[in-house]
Request: fold
Amino acid sequence: MEKRRRRNSDGGDRERSEFDQKVVEVKRVTRVVAGGKRMRFRALVVIGDHKGRVGLGLRKGSDVSESVNKAVNAAKKNLVTLPLVNETIPHEMKVKYKSSVLMLKPARPGTGVIAGGAVRSVMELAGVKNVVSKMLGSNNKVNNIKAIFSAFKQMRSKEQLAKMRK
Reply:
């Protein structure tokens, strides 16, 4: 894979990865210890190459930038490849993850991404240009994105489905 170069603010070059990243959520979480409350930050990050590969990272750190960096590294280890068909998903799906229910339907070219916030960011990073989706049940971004990823893992291309039927 070809890596692009990007100028740093100090004028130096650094390698830019092939993935774009989107910070979906940053939350402040606390735990109670003997001296009081200890604060940390939890980051939910999705990375994608706009060609069918996406990853999800959910990590905690002592500050926001540390948690985001940890989440990006976790997402790179957690990649899923989508079987895209004409810039859409290969077939209709309904997936349940915990209390989140997600419906995904392929759409004709020109439809665009008809989806809520969390699903929209994952679809755009995955390179899906035309899809219709509906999130039911939960408003929890973490569970909704994990539902998307479980759907992506279950998706099969037409060739894979034909092979399974034989």
Q: What stands out?
A: Residues 9-14 have pLDDT under 50 and may be disordered. The first strand starts at residue 4 and ends at 7.
